[in-house]
User: What shape does this take?
Amino acid sequence: MSDLNNFYKQIRAAIVIHKRDLRISLFGPVLHVVTFASLLISVTILRNYLTYIEANGLYPMPDLFSFPYRWAIILTGVYLSFSIVVSISRERESGTLELLFYGPVDHASYVIGKYVAHFSIYCLVIVLYLLCFLLISRIAGVQMTNSFFMTVLLSVFTGGYLISIGLFISAISTSVRSATLVFLTLIVSILLLQGSQVWLSNIAIESDYYNPVLLLQQLLGLVQTIVGWLSPFSYLNYGVNEMLRGNMIVFVRMIGFSIIFCFVFVAGSIIGLRLRGVRQ
Amino acid sequence: MISTNKLKKTYPEVEAVKSVTLNVRPGEVYGFLGPNGAGKSTTIAMLLGLVKPTSGHLSLFGNTLNDDYFKIKNAIGVVGENPYFFDEMTAWEFLSFHADLYMVESKENRINDLLENVGLRQYANIRPSEYSRGMRQKLSFVRALLHKPELLILDEPVSGLDPHGIRQIRGLIEEQKKTGTTIFISSHILSEIERTADRIAIMYKGNLLVEDNLDGLRYSVDQSVRVNVEVTHIPESLSGKLAEMTCVVDHEIEGSHIEIRLDASEDHREEISKVVTGSGTTIIGMETIKASLEETFMTFTDENVLGLSGTSEE
Assistant: This one.
């Protein structure tokens, strides 16, 4: 009975924190700027497709909306993940984290409240994108395919996973600066890794023996495989590609992995915050 | 209400709290004294569960935080040394958020009443960042009182305030004392503790040196009491008669004033009065001079500078 009562109080505290963060994000300007910019990029890509169709009478690809949507949602996800990275460490630096822990807030309720707030915003933005794309589809007279809706579905889970990574970094970081640095290093490393692999794969290899380029290609391939197992971007791209090939098992598996890793990182954040403490 | 047993906190480079055993009784104002760096804030952080003790035991309301975290936290109101606020919220929104957190019933009325009480009602829609230090501290008090806590923990509540602000905060503490709230107040402003506390503990270099009421503290540093007697004239025999009294430790005559140091174990004023008048003079006034908390505190800490310096380097 007491456990149930504590659980209720934990949920209650998480809801209050969730409401506060939701309110702060929705009334702040940055989210709206990022959403607008993401939408602008995706609409520009869509416009190019429509111009192509108008000029050639042909579709450049079967699903017009998935690629521009992925752009928009990756940008939004990265922003929300960054926002949560800064959020906990900033609260710790400013002392408001300590203030919350004076009262009936524990590590789990705080972390869950934070996570759910950012995930709710992410879902709200997805709904907004979906409405915009529906409107464009009506105006342009272009039909939306099932694969687009499947992409949207997968993006909900991969975005949730991306936000949980930001949460974890923030929970274990000592300051806003270190949290930002870790997050940016992570993002830049992933991008550099992908770029390097493409660049290296274009280099022709003359001999198979003791060739440093080959060795580097193999090494990067290995790192890429590991990153592929952890990166939410990889899950989104891989899941969508396999779904387009009709391999729904892999698509569902990507959703499953996203959920599992999301739980792992949220739980890691609770433990990390407990170990790191609420004080600067 | 609060009970700790050999509470200890060690950081890699410093032993912040060495051994603290204290006991705060329900309904009392407990003054927690100590110079900067004595370990007061670390002890409070351990009480609140913000810092995990290295060893020792602590309980609040008879339970540990692990036993019933939310029930205990709901019964405590805390005013920290630094008033923290959310930048994005007005004072009203800030209080409303905390009222939701503590599940305060009819929160609007409660917030309005408390704001009215501290004179902040008209500033409710302003962000606390625009408040003065005193206003921010009062707002922190309002936040801490929202849920009618049974225990108030105040960490340096008047630090950095002007005399007017100190007076207002003192008024709030006295109001809470009247309602029966247990108050644990940490400060290095001794005059405030002297005015408000029922019992006092003195921390020094991570150790709890003593825990008693003010008279008990005075007695433990000096077993004598000073009495200043003003008389019309000094008869020649008076000095000798006083010296013969067993309760008189020593005495000093200056003009028409006699300062007598008496054994503090009993009240000897009546005996003194008889001896003085019996020597043929008239008493105009008699005043007991008690050591201030500041003097008592200095004696304790000075004694322990020598006593502890060999074993405790912070």
